[in-house]
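Recall that a protein's primary structure is simply its ordered list of amino acids. Everything else, from secondary elements to tertiary packing, is in principle encoded there. The following example makes that idea concrete.
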Amino acid sequence: MGQTGQTGTILTHDVKIPSGETTLEGELSVPVGATGVVLFAHGSGSSRHSPRNQAVARVIRESSVGTSLFDLLTREEEAVDMRTRHLRFDIQLLARRLVDATNWVKREGDIRHLRVGYFGASTGGGAALVAAAEMGEEIGAVVSRGGRPDLAGEALPRVKSPTLLIVGGDDVPVIEMNEEAYARLLCEKELKIVPNATHLFEEPGAIEEVARLAARWFERHLQPRANVVAE
């Protein structure tokens, strides 16, 4: 699994995840006794280097749920995407790599028993829902932060995973896109608007609210199947 470190009761590993002919790099952090693990999907690739994703991941781990922050794009692909911005909108590519990462988790001996959730940001929100539709009940929950769930298109009605959409209150165009996607979801679902927050949730307290909402959603749904209790 690569290098291993331990902070308190959290085990952290550098990981390399195979996806076709590509290898995706990331970091896996799992609290001892975790009930699930959340895979982060960032549309522009650098999930593990996003300070906002790192902040959310820390709070999720405090709820005894592991996190895997990895890059959906290679360094070379990300350099191209910075110029063209087209790979971040290749939802099928991103979703396929997220599915490959999920299957990798299911093969890893020490974490394969954990329920898997997805946290998608930006176009990664659409990719997470496409992947969830493909994986079915294997995915225990999905959270989208300022995402583009509308880009999941025809996959939306096929999503079975409980889905939470979080949008900034001042991010008006993205609110409308999320409302359209929300209407097409047939699974358990919620849409939360964070007041006075813009697209990147840079305002004081905004990303902390996202983290709180996401952690509660995953803590609730990433439990052993027989022990899920409705709120």
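The chain has a mean pLDDT of 88. The first strand starts at residue 4 and ends at 7.
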